[in-house]
Every structure is written in C-alpha cells, then in structure tokens.
C-alpha cells in the first residue's frame, strides 16, 4: 500500500516537473490562455458595434432634421391627351342595345432634349454628444430645352391633345431640405410649383412630386423647342444624385469634401482635386448610354436604377477604426505571449501562467481605453494614450518578473512597434491588405530566426539509434 502511494507521488512529481520544464506544456498553457482571452475580446467587439449603432441612430436623427439624401429627377413635360372608350349598353325600355362613347384623359411624359446641371456643394459636420455626421448645403442650377412632343408615334391626333393643360413635373426626395422656392423659367416666363400629394400617375412612392401651374400655349413646345432653367437650394446629407433624363445630360459637381465616393452605374467623365482639397467631377451621358426612351405614355417607369452622383461619407470614423483595431487583438495577444515565451525559453526564466493572464488582460484593456477615450477625443489621441498606458504597464510588470531592464525594454519596444504597425494598417484603405501581409511575413521571419536554436526536447541521438536498430534487425 505504501509502495503504491510512493509510486503515485513520484508519478505526480514527474508530471509537475515535466509541466514546469516542458516547452510543449508552456505552449499548451499559452494557447489556452489566448483562447480564454478571446472571450473578453469578443465582448469588446460587441460593445463597439453597440456604440456604433447608437451613433447611427443619433446621426439619422440629425440628418432627418437637417435634410436627407437628395435625388433629383426633372423637369418633365406632362401633356394630357384624350382617348375614347366605347361600351355597349342595353336599354330596358326600348329593349335595344346601343354604343356609348366615353372620353378618358391620359398623359404623355416627355423628357428634355438637353439637360445641363451644375451643383455646388458646401459640406460641414454636425455634432451631438460624442457623435459626428457630415451634412451639406447644395445650390443646384439646371438648364436645357424641350423638343416638340411626338404624339404621332402613338397615333394620337392633334385635336385630341390638350395643350392648354400641359404642366411641368419635378420629382425629388427631401422636400424638407428645400431652402428656396421652386420656380422654373420657360421661354422667358416663370412658373411656380406646388407639391402634388394626390398624384395618381406617380410611380415613385419614395419620391415627392412637384407640379407647375398650366403652361401658357405660347410657351408649350408645340411647334418648336423651348428653353428652360431653374435653381434649387437644398440642405441634405449622405448623398446627392441625379437621373439622366436628357437626350444629352451634362452634370458638373464641385464640393469642398475631401473624400467623395461617386456612386451609380455611370462613371465620371473627368475629375480633379480643387485648391481647397475638395473635388470637381463631370458626367456626360447620352440617351444611348441608358435603356429608356425620351417619352412615355400613361405612366412613368421606375428609373431609380439609373441614378448617379456622389456620397458624402466619413470614410473611417472612430468606431470603425476601433473595430478594425480590435480585429487584430488576437494577433497582438498571440505575438506578445510569443515574445514572453521566447524570452522564458532562451533565458530559462520562469513565468507563471497567472502572470501571462495578467499581461493578456492588460492587452485587452487597451481596447476599452481606446473606445472610451475616442468618444471624447480624436482617434489618434485615444490610440496614443491607450497604447502608452498599456505599454508602460506591461513593461513595468515585466521588470518585476524578469528582474532586469534588458528584456522589459525589448518587450516595450516590440509592443510599440506592433501597435504602430496596426495603426498604420488601420489608416490605410486601399493598401491595408498588402501592408498587413508584408508585415506578418516579416514577423514570421523574425520568429523563425530567433527560435531556430531552441531545443524542443527531441533526442538528437534518436536518428542514430534508429539507424543502428535497423542495421541490427537486418
């Protein structure tokens, strides 16, 4: 019985000795701690998403009060015409059938022959609590001309066209953001517009319709082309877009916004950076560039898919940067633990798993500091404060573990380089993957070089013994 207990005790002592001295055991413990620290790191990423959703809610509220996205579509010439419908009815008194003709008023919609639009967009940032949003004020000027409508293609007689009830339509979003009266100059005469809330032929539930008063016969392009021009001033946010309804559509947009994102199915004809760091973009579109005609009868189709323009967005705000930074948390923790592991292995200094855990928690705390500070300051300042605090804490803690300044200073330098490398990647957009891949490749090369002389516990004589045994068996 005593012999069995002694054997069991010796076995436990051997396991503890192996566990303390084995490199494999250290790697297993270190891997388990890294996985354990992924739990708080995941919770931090969820916190970032929650704060980002809160920011988006506040931004949407600010944008809604200032002005939403702008989509402009017009002007459109709307001309009513008569159609006739015959129905057969039965007279109960005479016991005979007869035909009754009913006149139905329908509408033709005609797009401009030429449409030239210039938009001057002045941007600014609005702030509420800790959240920012980009808004703008846009001055839009449009000019062009209408050709004579082609009713003959639909076999509509001239006497059935109600020219005296012709009107103009402008379809747009964000009526709340309009800061000027909507007036259009046609052939030298000015026409005002009213919101048409009861538009039966409006095929755009998401677009508001503005309709002018009846056009004077002298201004209707009945026999010859008529020129027009109008100006609008908008408060808006997020984006400004147009639909190319002109047979030839030219759009020129200038703005002081430094990070434009042009959107839609049509690319810019030309673009340049202005002196104030903004941009000037030009589009030129022909009717052959899009698959809809210049005139429609009865109803208008949905043309939203042809919209193009510019988004005014903040490329990477604080929460997006914090989220991207947190995605590298696994890398930071893993590499930091690897540095301590190499120091422990090469210098034979003992580091307890609890000390690894404390270092890992300090690394996780970097992200909570980063989020909280960035809400009250710039991301750069928050990153510097959080990084310096964590690096100093881990360096001083390493001094108490490693008993000298040689290795702690190396650890502090390594962490500084690692956080600097991640900060550079976060700032990059187009080259983030390239720079990150090159950086990780270099780190892997350094680790391979440093660890090349580590004794991983394999018996160097084993191959010779194995060869000898094979020779004996032969």
* End-to-end distance: 46 Å
Number of domains: 2
State the CATH topology of the largest domain.
Immunoglobulin-like
CATH architecture of the largest domain: Sandwich
Residue fraction in strands: 25-35%
Q: Give helix % range.
A: 40-55%
CATH class of the largest domain: Mainly Beta
- Order of SSEs, N→C? HHEEEEEEEEEEEEEEEEHHHHHHH
Sketch the major β-sheet. 16 strands, mixed
Rough outline: elongated
Rounded mean pLDDT is 82
Class by alpha and beta content: alpha+beta
Count of alpha and pi helical runs: 9
β-strand number: 16
What does the radius of gyration come to?
Answer: 37 Å
The oligomeric state of the chains shown is single chain
Poorly predicted ranges: 199-205, 459-474
Transmembrane segments: 23-44, 328-347, 353-370, 382-401, 407-426, 431-450
InterPro entries: Uncharacterised_IM_CreD (IPR010364)
Pfam families: CreD
Protein name: Inner membrane protein CreD
Describe the structure.
With 474 residues, the chain is an alpha+beta fold. The chain folds into two domains: 26-56 and 319-453, no CATH class; 72-314, Sandwich (Immunoglobulin-like), CATH 2.60.40. Helices cover 40% and strands 29% of the residues. The protein has nine helices and 16 strands. It has a 16-stranded mixed beta sheet that branches. β13 (270-273) and β14 form a beta hairpin. α4 (329-347) packs antiparallel against α7 (406-427), α5 (353-374) runs antiparallel to α6 and α7 packs antiparallel against α8 (432-450). The longest helix is centred in the first third of the chain and has 44 residues, at 23-66.
